[in-house]
Amino acid sequence: MTGSLWSMIMKEFDNEMGKQKRKVLLIVDNAACHKVNGLNVENVKITFLPPNTTSLLQPLDQGIIHCFKVYFRQIMVRKQILAIENGLSIKQFITSISILDALNFIKRAWWLVKSDTIRNCFQKAGFQVEDISFDHIEEIVDVPIEIHNFDEYVACDSALIALVFLLMRK
């Protein structure tokens, strides 16, 4: 993520919220790219989480990311097993996955995350949650190389910083 990319995303999001006649509060972490001088948005108020509190206050870190990764990696393992059953080697399987395949796996994994999971994670992070839709979060993840068990596979990139975009689902 860069400051210029963040600015572009925020301007597009602001325009979309304006078209829908909505005013929104966007709570983001303190990543340097989010602190853009001169970002002029009318329909989006941006509030920053306090420094060094992301793991405690960000709903995604309360279980949403983990849940998404479990589904994503289950999909990958199932596809891998199917490929092996069809006579492909692991290397052949990995090289057969296109960017479109990966995006479809990500989309499917995201749709498997239940609204209740998202709602519970927001509550755990201290948000007052009523009848709000939380169908707007997408994460981009890396696939590990050396894994010894499924739990390790799910958590393999837990130390990495995830790029998180709040996007409107259609």
Summarize the structure.
The protein has 170 residues and is mostly helical. The chain is 46% helix and 11% strand. The strands form 2 sheets. A two-stranded parallel sheet has the order 1-2. A two-stranded antiparallel ribbon has the order 3-4.
Which terms summarize this structure?
disordered C terminus, CenT-Element_Derived, 170 residues, 2 domains, single chain, DDE_SF_endonuclease_dom, two-stranded antiparallel ribbon, Tigger transposable element-derived protein 6-like, mainly alpha
What does this structure look like?
- The protein is mostly helical and 170 residues long.
- The chain has 2 domains: 1-48, no CATH class; 52-166, no CATH class.
- 46% of the residues lie in helices and 11% in strands.
- Strands 1-2 form a two-stranded parallel ribbon. Strands 3-4 form a two-stranded antiparallel ribbon.
- α3 (64-85) crosses α5 (99-112).
- The two termini are 24 Å apart.
SSE order and pairing:
Blueprint: H1 3-19, E1 24-28, E2 44-48, H2 54-57, H3 64-85, H4 90-96, H5 99-112, H6 115-124, E3 137-140, H7 150-154, E4 163-166
Parallel strand pairs: 1-2
Antiparallel strand pairs: 3-4
Helix pairs in contact: 3-5
